[in-house]
Every structure is written in C-alpha cells, then in structure tokens.
C-alpha cells in the first residue's frame, strides 16, 4: 500500500458512493479497525458508519473478522476490488459484444447493486425494458438469459462456508408466476430469496486477457493470425484450466478443421501452415510445438506472452517519458543484463556526455539499478571497483504502478474540478433531459418539447459540448491506464 494508492481509493469511493463511504474507506485502508474506532476517527455518527460499512460489504469492497478478543469485528478494505470498479465499463462492453442489450442490463444491475438474487435482477431489468413489450414473454427471456450468464460463469453465487464448489454455478429456482405477481404490485416470497449472485471477476478477466493477446498478435502481424490465436485460445479451454502458465497441447489439425467450417478467413485457410510457422517462430514465444504426428500440437505459453507484453509496455513508457535514445539504452541494458557505463556509451553510439546524462536520469527514475563491485586483484589504486548497470523488473513494475496511481489521481481530480465549476449548468441540462424524456414517454412531441429544450441556450450548449468532450477524453485515458495496470497484474500472476 502507498499514499498515492490511498488517494485514488478515496476518489473512487467518493465518485461512486459519496463522502461518508469515502471517509470510512479511507480509515480502513490505512489500518483495519473496529466500528467504534472508525466512528471516532471519521467523526461520523455511528448509524451512518454502519450504513457505509454495509454498502462496502455488499459490494465486496470490505470484509470483517473477529478481533483477538473474540467479540469485536475488525473491518478491512479490499483494495483490489475498489480498483476493479474502474474496469466496470469494460465488463459491460464485453458482455454487450458477446450477448445483447438485455444481458448487458442484467450485468449492469448486479454491478450497480453489488449482489442480488436472480429474481431481483430479473425484476430490475424488466422495469427498465418493459416499455412496449409483453411482460410475460420478457420475463421468460430474461430468466433464460440470466441462466446463460450462470452457465457461462459470468455470475457466481455468494459463497458460504458450507457451500460446495459445484454449487457456486447451480442454476437458481425462479418462479415466473410469483415474479408477475410482484410486478403487478402484489406481495410474494420469491422462490430464490436469500440466494445472492455477484459478478465473477475471474471469468471477465479471462476474456479480457484473451482479448489483450488477440489484439497484440493482430497489431503485430494481421487479422488472420489474430483469428488463429483466438481459435487456439478457445480450443485451449477444452483441455486446460484457464489460468495455467502453459496450456496442454492443442492439435493444430483441430484448429484447421474449425476454420474450414467457419469459412470466414479464406486467406488463413489457404496459407494455414505458413501462418502457424510465423506464430511459432516469433521471438515472443507465443506457442511451442510438441510432437510431430498429424501436423503436431501446440502449447500456448501464457507466461512467456505476458513477460514479453510487460517488457514492451515498459520500453514504450521509457520512450514516452524520456526519448528514443533512452529507450535504446534501456533495451541494451536489458539484452546484456549487466553492463558497464563505458560499454553503453560505445555500443549505443551516443556522445559520452549525453549517454551519461540519460543513464543517470533512468537511474533517478528507478528504471535502472547500479551495482558497484570490488575487483579481487590487489594494488589497483583508484580502479579497485567498477560499476555495472542492470534492470530489476519487480522494481520497475512497482514504479510504473505508482505512476499509474498518480495519473489516475490527476485525472479524477481534474474531472471533479470540471464538474464542480460547471455544476449549475450540468444540473440544468439533467433537469431538461428528464423533463423532455418524461414528455416523450407520455406521447408529447413537437413544440412543447422544443420549448423545454430551448431552455438550454446556444452558448450553454457550446460549453456543455466542450465539457462533454473533456470528460470523455479523461474517461478514455483512465481506461487506457487501467489497460497498463491489467497487463502488469497478469504478469505478476504468472510470475
């Protein structure tokens, strides 16, 4: 944990839950604490602290356990899950791409509430979708689509100490007749009451990981090799657990048959062997051939892939933060492992003075490390030791994570500042949008709606457009920073 990380955690909680939850989260981020200590530290009424803790626990952002006295509960912040909230837009987009709008709404409701029963998810989604639709048909469709989310393991039951692993994805018993009664204003005890579901982040991360690999291969080569990589990953799951460093062998003829059946990439089918050879011979070590029979089989080397991706990410950061000369020096040190300053100056073909400046700049920013070694021969005088530059990857990763936290803090602070400066205008726009939407729902159109919309003047519209573009740019940058953090997390998991 770092101070910069704590600042970002507070801002994430502040944006999503408000000031009280952010204050409570900040206290238990610093140290696990009891209810009364949290209330005393935050100077928030005890009842409000209880509400804040219940929100954090419901969203799996905090946990608790008994203190050594066996009586007092001690609360701890789940920092990793707080940062996962930055990734929610990616999860929603992923589901929308793989399924449809209705499934997207089911997932969105669970993300918003933290955990819900299957019936509650369907009721909330129905309320959002019921306009101009047959309710009975809609509920049946949503029930089937919720079942498909469970089967695909995108949602998971909240586990209890006695629950078996196979029960985590057992389909819920949802009574449609009771749901209809509740929708019509009646009171019923729903059949799955007390069985709560939450998002299975592990499953989403699996898809994001695969997408990252396919995109990296596509960018490096072309769409055909990207499609080849996608099918290799799909077939990997038939015979391999999702998170192993190296997959079980995948028969390459099996991949070829799938491509022929799909018949979507004719060039890939025609030159299949050449594309496989390109992927196999790539320096990244993406796949490795095992066996010779019937075209052989290939293992997917997940650990090698993310090792290479992290190095490429670091080199890109060095190039952006410093310049191409610094990137050249960094690559040289990486290739030699340990190297003297004089050798660097000779090999990179940069003037000695400039090379020395870049070296110590990289050293100051923790991208390089210096080891000073003593020579064993006696009577060497002033040359009794020599200096070697090298790279400590774990140190660089910690350094980049801190840079990510700092960037996230700056982005979120700027976003809050813009919203604060233009709060009156943003609130006005929201009121106008709410009124016009309500009028359209009631079937009102034409001049009455235009009159309300014209309450926002052209200069105000121009300001709102500028604010919208800025906030969109900040959000996009936030997602790009999260991409970097995700790559680093994947590397650390496989390391």
Q: What's this, in brief?
A:
This protein is mainly alpha-helical and 495 residues long.
Total DSSP helices: 23
Shape: globular
Low-confidence stretches: none
**Integer-rounded radius of gyration:** 28 Å
For the sheet with most strands, the description reads: 3 strands, antiparallel
What is the structural class? mainly alpha
Total of domains:
5
Helix fraction bin: 55-70%
The counted number of beta strands is 11
Mean pLDDT level:
89
Report, as a whole number of angstroms, the end-to-end distance: 20 Å
Beta-strand residue fraction: 5-15%
Please list the strands of the largest sheet in the order they lie side by side.
1-3-2
Subunit structure: Component of the RNA polymerase III (Pol III) complex consisting of 17 subunits.
GO molecular function: single-stranded DNA binding
Organism: Aquatica leii
Domain RNA polymerase III subunit RPC82-related helix-turn-helix: 9-64
Written account of the structure:
With 495 residues, the chain is mostly helical. It has 5 domains: 3-79, Orthogonal Bundle (Arc Repressor Mutant, subunit A), CATH 1.10.10.10; 99-199; 204-300, Arc Repressor Mutant, subunit A (Orthogonal Bundle), CATH 1.10.10; 312-391, Winged helix-like DNA-binding domain superfamily/Winged helix DNA-binding domain (Arc Repressor Mutant, subunit A, Orthogonal Bundle); 400-494. The chain has helices spanning 3-17, 19-30, 35-42, 46-58, 79-84, 88-98, 101-113, 118-129, 135-151, 176-183, 201-220, 223-239, 252-262, 266-270, 272-281, 302-321, 324-336, 341-348, 352-364, 393-421, 423-441, 447-453, 458-494, and strands at residues 33-34, 62-66, 73-77, 116-117, 155-157, 196-199, 250-251, 287-290, 297-300, 369-374, 385-390. The strands form 4 sheets. It has a 3-stranded antiparallel sheet. It starts with a helix and ends with a helix.
């Amino acid at each position: 944990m770092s101070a910069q990380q704590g600042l970002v955690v507070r801002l994430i909680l502040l944006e999503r839950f408000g000031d009280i939850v952010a204050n409570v989260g900040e206290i238990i981020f610093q140290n696990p604490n009891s209810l009364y200590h949290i209330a005393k530290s935050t100077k928030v009424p005890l009842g409000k602290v209880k509400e804040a803790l219940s929100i954090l626990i419901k969203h799996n952002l905090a946990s608790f356990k008994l203190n050594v006295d066996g009586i007092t509960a001690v609360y701890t912040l789940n920092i990793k899950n707080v940062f996962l909230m930055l990734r929610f837009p990616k999860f929603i987009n992923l589901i929308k791409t793989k399924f449809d709008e209705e499934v997207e709404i089911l997932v969105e409701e669970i993300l918003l509430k933290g955990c819900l029963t299957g019936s509650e998810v369907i009721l909330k989604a129905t309320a959002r979708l019921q306009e101009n639709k047959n309710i009975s048909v809609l509920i049946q469709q949503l029930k089937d689509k919720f079942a498909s989310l469970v089967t695909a393991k995108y949602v998971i039951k909240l586990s209890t100490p006695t629950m078996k692993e196979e029960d985590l994805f057992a389909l819920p018993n949802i009574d449609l007749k009771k749901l209809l009664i509740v929708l019509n204003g009646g009171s019923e005890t729903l059949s799955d009451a007390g069985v709560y579901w939450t998002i299975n982040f592990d499953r989403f991360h699996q898809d994001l990981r695969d997408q990252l690999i396919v995109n990296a291969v596509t960018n490096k080569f072309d769409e055909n090799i990207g499609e080849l990589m996608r099918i290799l990953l799909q077939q990997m799951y038939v015979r391999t657990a999702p998170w192993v460093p190296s997959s079980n062998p995948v028969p390459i003829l099996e991949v070829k048959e799938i491509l022929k059946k799909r018949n979507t990439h004719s060039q890939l089918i025609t030159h299949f062997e050449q594309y496989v050879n390109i992927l196999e011979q790539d320096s990244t070590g993406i796949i490795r051939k095992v066996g010779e029979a019937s075209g052989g089989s290939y293992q997917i080397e997940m650990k090698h892939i993310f090792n290479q991706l992290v190095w490429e990410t670091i080199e890109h950061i060095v190039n952006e933060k410093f310049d191409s000369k610094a990137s050249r020096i960094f690559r040289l040190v990486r290739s030699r492992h340990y190297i003297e300053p004089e050798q660097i100056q000779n090999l990179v073909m940069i003037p000695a003075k400039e090379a020395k400046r870049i070296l110590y700049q990289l050293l100051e920013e923790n991208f390089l490390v210096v080891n000073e070694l003593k020579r064993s021969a006696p009577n060497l005088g002033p040359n009794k030791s020599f200096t070697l530059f090298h790279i400590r990857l774990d140190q660089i990763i910690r350094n980049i994570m801190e840079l990510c936290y700092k960037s996230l803090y700056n982005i979120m602070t700027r976003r809050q500042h813009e919203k604060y400066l233009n709060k009156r205008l943003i609130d006005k726009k929201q009121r106008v949008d709410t009124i016009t939407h309500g009028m359209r729902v009631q079937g009102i159109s034409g001049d009455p709606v235009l009159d309300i919309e014209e309450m926002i003047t052209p200069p105000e519209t121009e300001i709102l457009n500028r604010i919208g573009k800025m906030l969109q740019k900040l959000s996009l940058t936030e997602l790009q920073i999260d991409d970097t953090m995700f790559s680093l997390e994947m590397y650390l998991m496989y390391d």
